[in-house]
Amino acid sequence: xxxxxxxxxxxxxxxxxxxxxxxxxxxxxxxxxxxxxxxxxxxxxxxxxxxxxxxxxxxxxxxxxxxxxxxxxxxxxxxxxxxxxxxxxxxxxxxxxxxxxxxxxxxxxxxxxxxxxxxxxxxxxxxxxxxxxxxxxxxxxxxxxxxxxxxxxxxxxxxxxxxxxxxxxxxxxxxxxxxxxxxxxxxxxxxxxxxxxxxxxxxxxxxxxxxxxxxxxxxxxxxxxxxxxxxxxxxxxxxxxxxxxxxxxxxxxxxxxxxxxxxxxxxxxxxxxxxxxxxxxxxxxxxxxxxxxxxxxxxxxxxxxxxxxxxxxxxxxxxxxxxxxxxxxxxxxxxxxxxxxxxxxxxxxxxxxxx
Length: 355
Description:
Blueprint lengths: L1 H34 L16 H11 L3 E2 L5 E2 L6 H7 L4 E6 L1 H4 L9 H6 L5 E6 L5 H12 L6 E6 L8 E3 L2 E3 L14 H4 L6 H4 L3 H17 L16 H8 L2 H17 L3 E6 L6 H16 L4 E3 L1 H8 L9 E3 L2 E4 L1 H17 L8
Parallel strand pairs: 3-4, 3-5, 5-8, 8-9
Antiparallel strand pairs: 1-2, 6-7, 10-11
Helix pairs in contact: 6-11
């Protein structure tokens, strides 16, 4: 009996010591995060933690510029970009895209359509929104642009564009069909049912730091579930989610939408490939897209080799990000895309003396 009592006391003492040490460690981590930049990972090309001060700056940058009545971002105030396109009598180029066209992480004048505007004697109309897929582009074109008068249509392609989401003709996929990577399922508050304390927990930088590390690690271990026959199709981290898009049962849905777009298009159009880097995964994706566009005899320009010349097959250095909190393409890459867009436009028949 005495031995059991002694063991119980030892366990209690050890638990108290452990909790005290854990509290000290958390307080030390909180102090380091609040007073230094030692753990900010600002030079890492694949950070597992991004501090709030960088996120706040990214949010500030995203508010630069103007948003028109339809949600499109412009550098100068234009109340309705579609209506402006409709009444403009000059040479006009429409650009369709997602966050790269929106300019996520950048001021509007630094995104590639703005730089492209400076290279041509036409007015460039950037119709892009964060999170759009190719089906959104095609559906928007079919509903709002197909019957308007403009000269050229450039479609910016990003590696996640084959994502089956959006409505276009007979292609109708809700966001629940293949949700975006849901890393929140692996947050500490979710796993331990502490969501009602999120307001308090989120005041702690130490909690945020540990939470980001835990959910990023666990998400890479999570299995991919679902199929087109048994949706939803879910992957819990960006790489797995993007890889799943390129498996034939999903990718073939995108190819079918491309074929239908070519049938209904009334404008000269071409595709601009905008790779984020030239890692082996990225090269495999763009090689597959290139084979598809060659099969359809579409006009395109591919910036993959330009990226490879800069980065090789390694991940981009952080300095090439849009900003330290946002991994979208930065200044060097958007300049490459703008120059490639000009090459694509010339292949579609553009002459420098167009007015």
